[in-house]
Amino acid sequence: MSSRPLPLDPMLARAPLPFVVLDGAGRLLALNAAAARLYGRAGETLAGLPFVEVVDPFSREKAALMIAEALTRGAAHDWELYHPQAGAPPLPVSYTAWRWRSDPAAPFAVAAIGLPLTAAVSLAAQLATTNQQLEGALLQLERAHAELKAAQAQLVRSEKLRAMGQLVAGVAHELNTPLGFVANNLGFLAEQLPALAASTPDPQLAADLAEALAESREGLERITGIVRDLRSFARPDSPAVHAADLNASLAATVRIARTLCPRGVTIVEDYGSLPPVVCAPGQINQVVLNLLTNAIQSIPERGTVSISTAREGEQAVITIADTGVGMDEATLARLGEPFFTTRPVGAGIGLGIAVSMGIVERHGGRLEFTSAPGQGTTARLSLPLG
């Protein structure tokens, strides 16, 4: 086989479309300049090369079938083959091939002319770009939808908490009056106790009366403290921020959280020295009670929940750690997703952490979690002091 391609008619040689002549075995006999440019090699290096080697590997079987059909049937129309392009995707070319020979005595060969489908490539690129833009818009829409759902859920929860706060504040106010009666009566009994003890011949009865009176006054103080804590926690306060004693606010919240502890679960408090923190105390109480509730519920039988505060630079840091079951990385990564919950169906709707994160972010703070299966969970809430 000659290393130089056979000469072509000048019109075919100058044709803008790729034109090739192949022998019966599918080797290149002749090609014009347009074909050489398409194949990315000089014509001299292509002579004698199998045509299937200038097409994309995925088009080689199809190219062989096109040559066979042209030889057996006389022609093959609109065969789309792909040619590799340097630094670009493969270019589709639509070929029409026919049986051909230079003179009646020569063996049959195949001539083929191709139409590069550059418009199709351009359209595909435009479609790909448009598809990427649509995917980006869809992601933005999904993100906006998730944010809207989270905001709606937070609004619903805030309204419920506000209504609960109004109810509890009203009940606490109503309780104050009978509590005042009981306190006054106990005070009167305490004043009369020495006279009653002197008039009874039974000293044991006098001792029992004194003990009963002390226990009643202790119970009354506890009830008064619970009412005060409920009013402090659930009062319908406005979201306006002010400088607050964060440690005192947390202590009241912990007293409420203790009522949720089953037997075997204890809460340990360790409050560091903090200056007044500018915040909405009712909202921070809501966040801390939610974290304490999650920590308590994560302990299956016996364990400890610890809450501590400390100042770190210009941040007030609240740390809540538990000895519960912990979480794996997949669960930890989804904390804060609206409606994501690890609790059984009906036991939670998955809004507590999402709402808490929203509150902390509006305060300019951060809420972070660390956990591992069987190692418990630590929640770290940091708030700016000013």
Give the topology:
Blueprint: H1 10-13, E1 19-22, E2 28-31, H2 33-39, H3 43-46, H4 60-73, E3 75-85, E4 88-100, E5 109-116, H5 118-199, H6 203-234, E6 242-244, H7 246-258, E7 265-271, E8 277-279, H8 281-297, E9 303-312, E10 315-322, H9 329-334, H10 352-362, E11 366-371, E12 377-384
Parallel strand pairs: 7-9
Antiparallel strand pairs: 1-2, 1-5, 3-4, 4-5, 6-8, 9-10, 10-12, 11-12
Helix pairs in contact: 5-6, 6-7, 7-8, 8-10
The count of helical stretches stands at: 10
Proportion of beta-strand residues: 15-25%
Instruction: Choose one word for the global shape.
Output: rod-shaped
Report the average pLDDT across residues.
82
Any overview of this molecule?
The protein is α+β, with helices and mostly antiparallel strands. Helices cover 49% and strands 22% of the residues. The protein has three domains: 10-116, 2-Layer Sandwich (Beta-Lactamase), CATH 3.30.450; 141-236; 238-384, Heat Shock Protein 90. It contains ten helices and twelve strands. The longest helix has 82 residues, at 118-199.
In short:
The protein has helices spanning 10-13, 33-39, 43-46, 60-73, 118-199, 203-234, 246-258, 281-297, 329-334, 352-362, and strands at 19-22, 28-31, 75-85, 88-100, 109-116, 242-244, 265-271, 277-279, 303-312, 315-322, 366-371, 377-384. It is α+β, with helices and mostly antiparallel strands and 386 residues long.
